[in-house]
Amino acid sequence: MFGFWKTWKALEARGIMGINRRNADYVLKYNKRSLYPIVDDKIITKERAIAAGIHVPQMYGIISTEKEIDKLDEIIGGRSDFVIKPAQGAGGDGILVVADRFEGRYRTVSGKIISHEEIEHQISSILTGLYSLGGHRDRALIEYRVVPDQIFKSISYEGVPDIRIIVLMGYPVMAMLRLPTRQSGGKANLHQGAIGVGVDLATGLTLRGTWLNNIITKHPDTTNAVDGVQLPNWDGFMTLAASCYELCGLGYIGVDMVLDQEKGPLILELNARPGLNIQIANDCGLTLRTHAVEARLEELKAAGVTETPQERVKFVQEMFGHIPQVEG
Ligand SMILES: Nc1ncnc2c1ncn2[C@@H]1O[C@H](COP(=O)(O)OP(=O)(O)O)[C@@H](O)[C@H]1O
Ligand SMILES: [Mg+2]
Questions:
Q1: Taking every annotated instance into account, which residue ranges of this chain make up the domain ATP-grasp (predicted)?
Q2: Is the residue at 82 inside a domain?
Q3: What is the pLDDT of residues 158-182, one digit of tens each?
Q4: Quick one: which atom of ligand 1 is closest to the CA of 268?
């Protein structure tokens, strides 16, 4: 714990963003309240993404009322893997990742065997709002289970790693790869016990990791190094994240993406209040970067121009990438 505070203090000198600044100067300033439902409800996010031609895990069905729970069998059909999640959930809570069927029951991605009744009960809890922001009544969505690309096999334990990129007014400012652990039950959420690993914006090479507020370089379950891993199609992920600004209109978001073995990059969800631990994984504060983007926006405004997602990605990669500049 002491090590964590020491790290946080050291980062403070380098422009670390705290929760008050994030809320006042970014979330409140750049995120219009009326647009929140687009990101706070995963069903609406999906519809928006599809309309914009952005790939997402396919939705098999929606259950909105207790009566509709009877439709579950029909929605699942003959499939043996699928995911059930609260439309307005957060932090990985209430998500059920079913990987297989087993003797009339189901096997979750972390190996737990559950009955059909247990799944129905879980859906019922979702509907009552047990996992939703503010405890409001919610809907359950049933979707395609992402099968992670082979690249993650050595550095991930069960479940699906995701790539989180913080995007300010369409400019990606910081990225992190999140790796599920035995502890996180196949989910890539840090507070469930997943690892966060910083990513170089210019190259897509992983940096060091943070786990339960400690700095780490090896995955605790697989013991393989988490740094120095080249993420595939990195510029594609960067451009995808940048284009989520046009998709939702919110100026300060965390974009969560996954790399499916067959379907390639997919958007999992968008967050209007992205967490701040990404700074520890990157050993870098957000403020210097967000200020640089704000200065860029001023400059462009004065010149009366705007940039495309590709141009924005190029700007941040040159500005914040770790690639050493070649002299001469
Ligand atoms: N369709 C899916 N297939 C496989 N794993 C998933 C799927 N959806 C979510 N997960 C796992 O659960 C985690 C949290 O999902 P997410 O949709 O981001 O919800 P939350 O808002 O709770 O973070 C993901 O990072 C991933 O590890
Ligand atoms: Mg998430």
A1: 46-297
A2: yes
A3: 889 999 999 999 999 999 999 999 9
A4: 17
